Amino acid sequence: MIRYDVLKAIAPIVRGRLVVCNIGSPSQELYEILDQPSNFYMLGTMGLCSSIGLGLALAQKSPVVAIEGDGSVLTNLATLSTIANNPADNFTLLIIDNGSYGSTGDQPTYAGRKTSLADVARACGCESVVECAAEQTADELEKALASGSMTIIVSKCESGNVDVPVIGMDPCVIRERFVGEINRLGEARAES
After folding, report:
1. How far apart are CA 146 and CA 144, in angstroms?
2. Which end of the chain is more exposed for a tag (fewer CB within 10 A), N or C?
């Protein structure tokens, strides 16, 4: 399985949930598979998807799934320490580890060699860390969301991109509809 296959497998699970998606190819692929107002597509901030996802989870009560790449996490390893020391039980970080910088031409990352992002997350103090094969990702994501505790999932998949169009939506529109969903979910929670 490649990243696109992982995203297709988790699409039914993240439907209607707040999702922050990594820049470049991952966002374009998710947009192709499951565009929804509750998706926040990153368009130019490599390494910050997990940080934005954590901040969002800390700021409100709805579950948040951040879909990150191994290359992006490697550019901001401090995010794992921040996550460990600021736990949010409504936060799930899914690192799709294809061992490459997929958006820039599939150059290999160190996560595809000796560096284990699951081990790094544990060393940073993250308590619930799961490493799985790509085929197990949907099951692990369902478990993480049902657990009610912060979880980091490292999904090991093959390198490769699917040729999908760029996101044609203006970044301001992406932000506005995402903020609308945050507000809608908060209001729905307040009414229940």
Report:
1. 5
2. C
pLDDT digits (tens, 9 = 90+) for 76-125: 999 999 999 999 999 999 999 998 776 666 677 768 778 999 999 999 99
Pairing status of strand 100-101 against strand 151-156: unpaired
| pTM of the predicted structure, to 2 decimals | 0.95
Give the C-alpha separation, 132 to 53, whole Å: 21
**Which class for 65: exposed (0-12), middle (13-18), buried (19 or more C-beta within 10 A)?**
buried
Domains of the chain: total? 1
Please tell me what DSSP assigns to residue 166: P
Structure tokens at 168: 């044609």
Residue 165: give its domain's CATH number: 3.40.50.970
In terms of residue numbers, what domain contains 85?
3-191
In sequence order, the β-bridge partners of residue 103 are: none
